[in-house]
Design goal:
about 625 residues, alpha/beta, Rossmann fold, Arc Repressor Mutant, subunit A, 4 domains, binds adenosine-5'-diphosphate, binds zinc ion
């Protein structure tokens, strides 16, 4: 069966192998099992239900929360020559009836539908279908714990009972554990097998710039966009006013940027969104509202003009870049003024304690000199125990010291209290504090009491923070912020692994002079970089530009988004391999049969013209 699947993968999608866990999910569903699939954005969730749909008899029903997402998926499938359609309320009923007839006749492999329509029509026309599987996309919408709860989704809880023999596959990119656990329960698929991949997005380079004043910051943004000319990107700001002023500055500098915020009319917002998707406007300056329900795969960069309110928001927003797997860049501007403003919002929020804590973790991320990816993945409780080499800290590393013995001391103090202390008490024990409550708890009799006496409080604080960021210990928010030792931490504690700390520098985080000299962004990650893994293969940048124009012209004439014709990654591979014949064209990454047939002439002609003109 796997051979057949791989043949279809090549034929319809133009890919040669599966991403991690894709085949495991596919074969599980083919065997009739229910599945919960947790993968980050860009992890390749769609294929997990599309491939079984292609391999099984009948039609797969895909539940999706937003019309725009359904349309995007259907367009993409049709482009690849796969018969797909969506039933929706914005189409006239005549069109819907035609699609229903087609589905009953067995002419459609994937049918997209909203949850309320699925439940409403389950006993009418849907009962006449031969259904291969149900896929619940954006499955976190079923959970009240999640950030995007949709009451319509809760009705899906009856699917399992009403259609007991049809596999259900739930998919989400949510990184939040409570929500994840809720999904299978709400759907009534308690026996579903869980498939989870790393939430790392290795193609996104992570960068932070510090303490730039207004004008300097705007110049830095301009320079950044100059480097990314013509590429799509999003700038996130805290206020509507800032979105307007940044967009105006960019336009004055000749960059086609538009603001996007909740104060605009619905029709203006829709127009702006469409212009962005169709590569007509490359830069959007937005408040956080922008990006939901957009599947655009060729967003190449995201700038945070202001500090986000939490690591969750930050990760979701940078995640909108680089869905196609080609290199993408995230740049965060950090300033203490933002922290003050966000603290005020957090205090007014009604959940001030937890929101302030989330803000503190975000601030610590920005101020830290530890590999940024390690901090992010540790925050999401994922083990990631090496430096990433694709963030500003890794590219310009600070001085390091051996932290093994220091962290062993701290962890044994934590372990000997039964992991029932927070950071301050841990430091008090290490430093042999005379505090009454330390003695009252009997901590002064621990063998670790006072073993870190010669290290000042502030220095211990920096080290323990690093232990959290490196993933040696976790903060248990639901247990008074007590520190808990992770598996990785235990390996260090028992001497199986070593760990390095960034050397403590007094006031390191407030010295602006030093910051000014620090490189703010990095050039190391370019589209060529990752694609040209074979040393002899070099991407022709001029040709890449030409191919982008060819793609744009085709997309315009067909009325679809350019990234649905081909992804940036496919264009980059084309610019490297420079196919001039149909046969050569068919082997390019992401070129399946249907697209080869439709587009080989236009693209190989562009290559020939370009080579001829050199
Ligand atoms: P998600 O829904 O998890 O965000 P998608 O299903 O949209 O991810 O896939 C992200 C990108 O990766 C798409 O451009 C998709 O075509 C591509 N992709 C998916 N699976 C593979 C694969 N096995 N090989 C190469 N590219 C893939
Ligand atoms: Zn790193």
């Amino acid at each position: 069966m796997k051979e057949r699947a791989l043949a279809l993968l090549r034929r319809y999608y133009g890919y040669d192998s599966f991403y991690p866990k894709q085949w495991q999910v596919i074969s599980h569903v083919l065997n009739g099992g229910d599945a919960v699939v947790l993968m980050p954005t860009g992890g390749g969730k769609s294929l997990c239900y599309q491939m079984p749909a292609l391999l099984m008899d009948g039609v797969a029903i895909i539940v999706s929360p937003l019309l725009a997402l359904m349309k995007d998926q259907v367009d993409a499938l049709m482009q690849s020559g796969i018969p797909a359609a969506a039933i929706n309320s914005q189409q006239d009923e005549y069109t819907n009836r035609g699609i229903i007839a087609g589905a009953i006749a067995g002419n459609i492999k994937l049918l997209y539908i909203s949850p309320e329509r699925l439940i409403a029509d389950l006993d009418t026309w849907i009962a006449k279908l031969r259904i291969s599987l149900f896929a619940i996309d954006e499955a976190h919408c079923i959970s009240q714990w999640g950030h995007d709860f949709r009451p319509e989704y809760t009705q899906l809880g009856t699917l399992r009972e009403r259609c007991p023999h049809i596999p259900i596959i739930a998919l989400t990119a949510t990184a939040d554990r409570v929500t994840r656990d809720d999904i299978s329960q709400q759907l009534g698929i308690g026996d579903a097998k869980l498939f989870m991949t790393s939430f790392d997005r290795p193609n996104i380079s992570l960068n932070v710039a510090h303490d730039l004043s207004g004008k300097v910051k705007q110049r830095a943004v301009l320079r950044f966009i100059e480097r990314h000319r013509g590429e799509s990107g999003i700038i996130y700001c805290l206020s509507r006013k800032t979105t307007e002023s940044v967009a105006a500055t960019l336009r004055a500098a000749g960059i086609n940027a538009k603001p996007f915020h909740a104060g605009m009319t619905t029709s203006t917002k829709l127009t702006t969104q469409r212009e962005f998707i169709n590569d007509e406007v490359p830069v959007i300056v937005a408040t956080i509202a922008f990006g939901m329900g957009i599947d655009k795969s060729n967003v190449r960069w995201v700038i945070h003009y202001n500090l986000p309110k939490s690591i969750e928001s930050y990760y979701q927003e940078i995640g909108r870049a680089g869905r196609d797997g080609a290199p993408a860049e995230a740049l965060l501007f950090y300033s203490y003024a933002d922290v003050i403003q966000l603290s005020q919002f957090a205090r007014d929020s009604g959940q001030s304690e937890i929101n302030l804590e989330k803000l503190t973790r975000m601030q610590q991320y920005a101020e830290s000199r530890v590999c940024r990816r390690r901090i992010l993945l540790s925050y999401f409780n994922e083990r990631f125990d090496h430096d990433c080499d694709n963030c500003d800290v890794c590219h310009d590393p600070p001085e390091r010291i051996d932290g093994t013995v220091l962290s062993q001391k701290a962890m044994s103090a934590i372990a000997r209290t039964g992991q029932k202390i927070g950071m301050t008490t841990a430091i008090d024990i290490l430093r042999g504090s005379k505090r009454a409550d330390v003695a009252a708890a009997g901590y002064d009799r621990l063998p670790t009491f006072g073993v870190g006496r010669d290290t000042p409080f502030a220095v211990w604080k920096s080290y323990i923070l690093q232990m959290i960021q490196l993933g040696l210990v976790e903060v248990a928010y639901d247990e008074n912020n007590h520190l808990k030792i992770t598996d990785f931490g235990r390996e260090v504690l028992f001497g199986k692994r070593c760990v390095e700390f960034t050397k403590f520098e007094p006031h390191a985080e407030t010295t602006k002079a030093k910051r000014g000299t620090r490189r703010q962004t990095t050039d190391r990650t370019t589209l060529e970089g990752i694609l040209n893994q074979e040393p002899q293969a070099v991407m022709d940048k001029g040709l890449y530009e030409t191919l982008r124009q060819t793609r744009l012209a085709i997309a315009r004439s067909r009325g679809i988004a350019p990234y649905l014709v081909f992804s940036d990654k496919t264009l980059a591979d084309m610019a490297t391999r420079q196919p001039t014949t149909r046969a050569e064209f068919s082997t390019v990454y992401g070129v399946g049969e249907a697209k080869c047939e439709q587009y080989w002439r236009a693209f190989t002609a562009a290559v020939v013209r370009h080579i001829g003109g050199r």
